[in-house]
Design brief:
alpha/beta, Rossmann fold, UDP-galactose 4-epimerase, domain 1, seven-stranded parallel sheet, three-stranded mixed sheet, 41% helix, globular, binds nicotinamide-adenine-dinucleotide, binds thymidine-5'-diphospho-beta-D-xylose
Length: 342
């Protein structure tokens, strides 16, 4: 089998490639990635030399890039490539439209042209909007995206659905909750807080810190994606979550404890505009159909994650240098500091 994985140099994609090569050692992989600020060849340095792995640099929104890299004998496309950070989509949505919408249509067209057996779109719970204190997202929840990022991922889902319905393309959509683990770029909550705390820098929590996210350790997610790809039904949507809801404040307090750093590092700052209050996934469908269960608890996954960042200082220093410093200053330099309400 030959798999075309897009966005494999990013956080989830690189963890998935490492996982997949272990689980399916006979399989050939093409990793197709534009290497944006979020794509980092160092994330896959350990597999780069293997004979069944090939890297191609290219942009999913450019048909000529995709068609020249997509060998005729590819069986499966898994699309991890995306602009993935909500705050950047608020600052400038243009790249999100190009990659997350145009790029997905380019891949769908290429999949049809080449007669690919299955197209898997990696989506997100954010397409379903924000929950109140009660209730859960399921595969039947309406799409109600609130940020430019979420809107672009919802649009992509609609294009995937249309390719299935109109052209009979074999497609699957997978929506997960917030992933965390090794190799995550430190713009996202958990790696940003760990790397700041390691350097005794302030930990900027948006608003009251009581927004809730549903966390899943990346390796657990990779196993779920594997089960869905190999055994899932064409045209279906699958929601993956580990039943692990935490407020942002709970997340930060957990990692402060693991790092043995003081609570005084916490700084409440001006909220994210349009900040979704709560995400929570009901993963019953995936549990029922595949018998999948997460292997890590939030505590064990966080302990592994903190340990990974502590023991990969050169990786941390490299990704936090150069353009990252400008990004950080732009994103956090002007945020008002708030007095905590609790
Ligand atoms: P990431 O930002 O770490 O990685 C994205 C990768 O895509 C990078 O390697 C980047 O270089 C590549 N890329 C970006 N634009 C591209 C383009 N035009 N052509 C080719 N490659 C391009 O993202 P991630 O956190 O690993 O997320 C992977 C996927 O999972 C995304 O589709 C995201 O929407 C989805 N997702 C992520 C989470 C999460 O918690 N991280 C949760 C749910 C869904
Ligand atoms: O500095 C911060 N302070 C803070 O309080 C950052 C970066 C985030 N937050 C809050 C905002 C959210 O409530 O933490 C929570 C998590 O934020 P992010 O890590 O930016 O993730 P989120 O906005 O929930 O989106 C993530 O999950 C779904 C991923 O970035 C998406 O790619 C995925 O689709």
């Amino acid at each position: 089998m030959k798999v075309f994985i897009t966005g494999g140099a990013g956080f989830i994609g690189s963890n998935f490639i490492r996982y997949w090569m272990r689980a399916h050692p006979q399989c050939e992989i093409i990793n197709f990635d534009k290497l944006t600020y979020a794509g980092n060849p160092a994330n896959l340095a350990d597999v780069a030399g293997q004979p069944n792995y090939r890297f191609v640099r290219g942009d999913i929104s450019r048909p000529e890039d995709v068609l020249s890299a997509l060998d005729p004998d590819v069986d499966l496309i898994i699309n991890f490539a995306a602009e993935s950070h909500v705050d950047r989509s608020i600052e400038n949505p243009a790249a999100f439209i190009r990659t997350n919408i145009t790029g997905v249509q380019v891949l769908l067209d290429a999949a049809r042209e080449r007669g690919i057996d299955r197209f898997v779109q990696i989506s997100t719970d954010e397409v379903m909007g924000s929950l109140g204190p009660e209730g859960y997202f399921t595969e039947e929840s309406p799409l109600q995206p609130n940020s430019p990022y979420a809107a672009s991922k919802a649009a992509a889902e609609m294009l995937v659905r249309a390719s299935h319905h109109t052209f009979g393309l074999d497609t699957i959509i997978i929506r997960s909750g917030n992933c965390y683990g090794p190799y995550q770029f430190p713009e996202k909550l958990i790696p940003l807080m760990i790397t700041n705390a390691m350097d005794d820098q302030p930990l900027p929590i948006y608003g009251d810190g009581l927004n809730v996210r549903d966390w899943i350790y990346v390796e657990d997610y990779c196993r779920a994606v594997d089960a869905i790809i190999t055994r899932g039904r064409s045209g279906e949507v699958y929601c993956v979550g580990a039943r692990s809801e935490k407020t942002n404040l709970e997340v930060v307090e957990t990692l402060l404890r693991l790092l043995n750093k003081p609570r005084s590092l916490i700084q409440f700052v001006e909220d994210r505009p349009g900040h979704d209050r709560r995400y929570a996934i009901d993963p019953s469908k995936v549990e029922r159909e595949f018998g999948w269960r997460p292997q890590e608890t939030f505590e064990s996954g966080m302990a592994k994650t903190v340990h990974w960042y502590q023991t990969h200082r050169p990786w941390v220093d490299a990704v936090r240098s150069g353009a990252y410093r400008e990004y950080y200053q732009r994103m956090y330099g002007h945020r008002k500091i708030l007095k905590p309400s609790h």
